[in-house]
Amino acid sequence: MKGKKRFVLWLLPLFLVALAAAPAIAQILVQCPGGDANDDTYSDTDPTIRCIHLGGGDGFVNMADKNTVSPDGTLVYMFGFVRIPNNLPANQVMEFGELAAQFPAPTIKVKEGEKLYLTLTTIGMKMRPDLFDPHTVHYHGFPNAGYIFDGEPMASLAINTGASFTYFYNLVEPGTFMYHCHVEATEHMQMGMLGNLYVTPKQDGIPKLFQGRTYTKFAYNDGDGSTGYDVDYPIQITGFDPVFHENNLYVQPLPFADMKDKYMMLNGRGYPDTINPAVFYNTFSDLPSGGKPSQPIHSIITAQKGQRILLRISSLSTVHISTLASFGIPMRVVGKDAKHLRGTTGQNLHYNTNSVTLGGGQSVDVILDTKDVAPGTYFLYSRNLWELSNDKEDFGGMMTEITITP
Known about the structure:
Elements: H1 2-21, E1 49-62, E2 75-83, H2 93-97, E3 105-111, E4 115-124, E5 138-140, E6 164-170, E7 175-180, H3 185-190, E8 194-200, E9 208-210, E10 213-215, E11 231-240, H4 242-249, E12 263-266, E13 280-281, E14 293-295, E15 301-304, E16 308-315, E17 322-327, E18 331-336, E19 339-340, E20 351-353, E21 355-358, E22 363-369, E23 376-382, E24 389-390, E25 393-394, E26 399-405
Parallel strand pairs: 1-4, 3-8, 11-16, 15-26
Antiparallel strand pairs: 1-2, 4-6, 5-7, 7-8, 9-10, 11-12, 13-14, 16-22, 17-21, 17-23, 18-19, 18-20, 18-22, 23-26, 24-25
């Protein structure tokens, strides 16, 4: 035994030297049980498996103000996520994701009972090659079975540039969630690494009669149809501090203590850009078509008179608490923080209001019933009046329109 111990002790230094000399290997690998050759986010062999590939990197977005230099708004540097086709060859992923960050991140809509395989590839910072920040995906509010999939880097993994990691989520709870990068969270979230995420309930597709109408879509598994709706819209509250973003681009000390959002937005846009249905392309590139698509999500809310609208409102603001009001259409809050408002004995705890207040990391599910609402245009807007501006330009910011047709 002594001879064996001496042999192991003699061999150990050689092993450590070989390990230190071995090159670090990063690999782009999308894991999807059953494959996904058609890139429709569903596995080719199992309809209960969803496979999504995201890239994390940097890019640019244009704000809603109309500056004097360009017909488009102020160009702002940001970090963000972009949806990468699952069937894109690995050797094309980095080029595809270069300066392709979107704000907000691509919306993730999944169903209760599905299994989500979410692959994140860190693209890196094209404009800041000195930064080696890894990235993660934190599925905010979700009860992970394993801490390794949480995305909080002190308890799980962070993904370095050129590498991939696949998160697994067994979707057992419906509701309005959100997701964001959790590495240096205040910086990366302020810079734009966040997006909408919601889970539809198993009850969907089962007709339920409620107050004289039959619904087949629901916010939660209510059993009585009380969370039934006709159309739904995710609305995410965010804001940008242009000084913080500019300092991040030009390698200046970051003013965390002085952080103050000057561009307040819904789904990554300020008014009137919130009501423009077009996908926005940033003006960073000189290409005839502009840069890459950077702000794909508008916030136009439309319904026919008599329909019920579900607003999935969430906030990932890093510094502000905001109040959204719906002038002329009463709100009925049916869920909060991805939980149905229901008591322990089964009674509904829904309540009516004309505004909801959210801080960063909170969500509410609000139903707008248009049965007694006249056709026309209404507004969903911030009650914090200073948030109704695009930096120094008034009559913008955190506002969108609700159109009720006959």
